[in-house]
Structure formats: structure tokens, C-alpha cells
Amino acid sequence: MRVDSKSRPSSSFARKLLSTTAILTVSALTLTACGGGMSTGESASADTANSGDNVIVKANPPYGPDHMMSTAMTQFGDVVTESSDGELTFEHYFADALVKQPEVATSLTGGVIDLGYLGMAYTPASFPIDAWASQLGYGGDERPVVGLLANAAAAIEWSYSHPEVSEELEGQGIYPLIPRFQNHDNYQLLCKDPVTSLADARGKRVRVGGELYSEAVTALGMTPVTLSGAEIYEGFERGVVDCFVGAEPDMTGLGLWEIGKNFTKVDFPGWSSISLASSNDFMDSLTPEQKAAFDDNRAEFLKIYYTGYFDEQKRFHQEQDAMSLNYHAPGEDLQQALDTHFDGVRQDMIDNPPAVVSDSEAAVTEYEQLREKWVGIVEDLGYDGGHANHQEWATELGDGSVDLQPWADKLDEEIFTNLS
Prior knowledge:
By secondary structure, this protein is of the alpha/beta class. It has two domains: about 300 residues, D-Maltodextrin-Binding Protein, domain 2, CATH 3.40.190; about 110 residues, Bacterial extracellular solute-binding protein, family 7 (D-Maltodextrin-Binding Protein, domain 2). Helix content is about 45%, strand content about 15%. Strand 2, helix 2 and strand 3 form a beta-alpha-beta unit. The longest helix is centred in the last third of the chain and has 21 residues. The protein is globular.
């Protein structure tokens, strides 16, 4: 497996309060928050930037400054700043300081922020095509690194081969830098008490993000609960929820593994109802060179994102003993309930697609074929280390990080260089 010996150290997440930097950022920018990426010294009515103008990009990392999704956005901002020769600089509004996750779409088009992770599943009625497509993904490759890289690339390629995905966003004034991507590995279950059977699951309150997971935990007899990112830790700590559905980097990055000590490998589909997004108005206001600083660095963003992701996933499994985590496999009745539920989800996708999807079965099959294609590509790139599970993978990786440059180059070759 490809390894970069220079690992990125992970700092602890400020769980209950934003960092001083984040608070000062918001305070300093509140008066200009509705300007929509205006240039320094210009009014918000300016139509287009001129070459050499300095433009402030207001970005919305969804969690605190040390969560890997936030650091991916801040590091991407650094890349864009360098690519634009310093003409684009970033101000970051962390967590719920300015915008809550369900408000990202309207905040982008309203000029409150200029860049964010748009989680379409938070407002599924506004994005019916995504709500349908987000159900893809159950039963993919479960190997460390291989599974996520293949699923992520397949979701991206599939979204570009179905222009209705981007058109749904663009029609609402949103500019999708990446229309949709699977930004997490398979989702697992972290609970205060062990959950391995339907009897264990029954009545448990569980924090979920989106309808796909609400329906999945309901099929297990659990009660779904919605909490924003900034509310999850306190809700888990105080007993508002008994369990959390998500991926290992969320469990570390949000500090949840300090509370929940029972990890059940349920392998829900990883979250894919997400777009790295800006607005049409903001992008139209930039010079072609400034816009290219975003567009030409899509693969670089994904490399940054998944490097941080794997670092945190590795950390979770390396520190399982130190954190007194208990690993559980689902019992037969729980696993059967999951398989039956997601078999039904796939069939429902075929039977009840959005009107713009003319051949739903072909669309679902195409995604599954792309997933297999990318499994082969990822294997050929050397990412299969033959590990039996994520714990074995994390132990062997040690202090290193996964080298994702070959994968990023392949994304450019197979997908991004072909965009018009």
C-alpha cells in the first residue's frame, strides 16, 4: 500500500466552544457578511473582479478548526490563494458561527458565504435528484483505503455522467465545484451501551444526518434524532442521544469516542449527499484566472481531504485500546435486517426515480459498474495492502500517511481534464 512517511499530526478538537480565532473572524467580518466575496475596498455591487484585485472568499468549514473537514477546507483555501498569486484570500466561519448546515444553500446564493460543503440531504425537498442518488452505495468494497477511494471516485464520475445532478444545483444558483462525492467511508455505530442485536437496538435514540440514515436506523427499531454539528457532543454527553451513526473521523474529531465506548461495524453507506460548492454569482464575479484557481484544483482538494480523513481513521483504530473502545460485529438478526432494508432501498430507487431520470435501473447499474472500475484502478495503483481489517491496516501504517498523489492524478486523467 502506498504510504507517505510524513504523517500530519492531529490536534484535539475544541468540542464545545469555537476557537478564539474563529470567534474573532466572525466578529471582524459580520458587517461584510452579506457582501458575497467582494474585493477589498469595493462595494458589494461590483460585478466582476479585475486582474490584480484582492478578493476575500468567505468559507464555511462545518465543524471546529481542528476537524478534518475543516482543515481540508482551510488547506484548500491556501492552495487557491497560491494558485491565484494571492488575489484570493480566505476568511473562515467555523461550525455554526454564521451558518448552520441546512442553511448552506441559501447562504451561498444569498452571498453570506462564498464556499461551503453543501449537504443536500439536510433539505431533501430542494434537491430531489440528490435525495434519490444518495441512496447508492450499500454493499461496496469494505477494504481499508480501497473501498473509500473507489466509492469516492465512482460517485464523482457518476455525477458528471449525469448532468441533471449539476443542473439541479445550478438551477438554484449554486456552482458545484464537485457536484457530489462520498466524503466518508462506510458509516458505523458508536453507542454508550453495546448494540449487536435488534433487541439491543430497540428504542435507542441515535443521531443521524439525513433521511437515508433515519430510515436505516428506524428499520432496526431505533429512533433517529437530528442535531447540528455543534450540538452533537453535548447531546451525546447529556443523553439526548444514546448512539451516533457516522465515520471514525467524526468520532475522533467531535470527541464522541470519549463518551461512546461501543463500536459496531454496521457498514451503512458512507455519506455522499455533499457538494463542494460556491454560487454562480460569486464565480461570475471572478476573473477567468481567479475562477481557474478553484476549478483546476479539484483533485488537489480531494487529495487533501482524504489524506486528512485516513489520518483520523487510522488514529481511531490505533488508539482503540487507550480509549477503551469495544469492537462489536452485528448479530445475525441485526445484519439480516440491514441487508433486507438496503435491498429494498435499491429496488425502490429503480421503481420510484425522479422524473428527470429516464432509465433508473441503468443509472443504478452504471454506478455499481463505475465502483468496480475504480476498485480495479485503485488496486492497480497499489493501495491494497492485503489487510484483514482497519485495525491491522492502522497498525501497519504506523506514523505514516497514505500517499494519495497517484489517485489524485488518476482523477484528473479520468474525470476532471475531460470537463468542458
